[in-house]
């Protein structure tokens, strides 16, 4: 198969499936992963895809933000391992914050009954899981609810966060990288995330490997503002080498 033919098939696959995975494509076309990466670079120069960690996505999906149910199914095993690894970072007592996100929601569901915690969140799924737990003093931030992420945003949440000091915060993200920090598509949600980061004494980022290098529109934190990054072993050596340059502790679940 000629390179142009393979690239045409890759472009069609990206539009059909929403993503190209380098490893899977290399196995399918029986070529080296480096060949697929060169193909994707060529397609990116043509404006057909944007390369992300481990593959590429079609440009027509750059403004697409999947809903909670779809995101929760993506890399579910990795998210479960990350949540369990992050459980060690939850204090036995004190104040904690849970940012909206499918991995942070998994962590909230794992909280044991013997903790004495004041919990702050802007996530309806997190609040739903903890509302009936009598040992937790739960505070749900107000504001407009984004239907895509089921998170509260805008001034009501921001006004409250300005007056809070929280021991540990657990954060989700749509994308992260050593160069661009932690990013998300929506500026309103990004503003609340940034205010949450400022309100916390210690910040723990929960992000699976597929989000590395997938930089989104609005940055809410530099990686230098993160104390602990909990991710999974899907990161390759190049990504790990980049992350070694940041000050955060990196935990591989």
Automatic annotation (TrEMBL):
Residue spans crossing the bilayer: none
SUPFAM superfamilies: NagB/RpiA/CoA transferase-like, Winged helix' DNA-binding domain
Residue span(s) of domain HTH deoR-type: 3-58
Matches recorded under SMART domains: DeoRC, HTH_DEOR
GO molecular function: DNA-binding transcription factor activity
Classification via InterPro entries: Carb_Metab_HTH_regulators (IPR050313), DeoR-like_C (IPR014036), DeoR_HTH (IPR001034), NagB/RpiA_transferase-like (IPR037171), WH_DNA-bd_sf (IPR036390)
Parts forming coiled coils: none
Record has Transmembrane as a keyword: no
Function noted in UniProt: Repressor of the lactose catabolism operon. Galactose-6-phosphate is the inducer.
Protein name: Lactose phosphotransferase system repressor
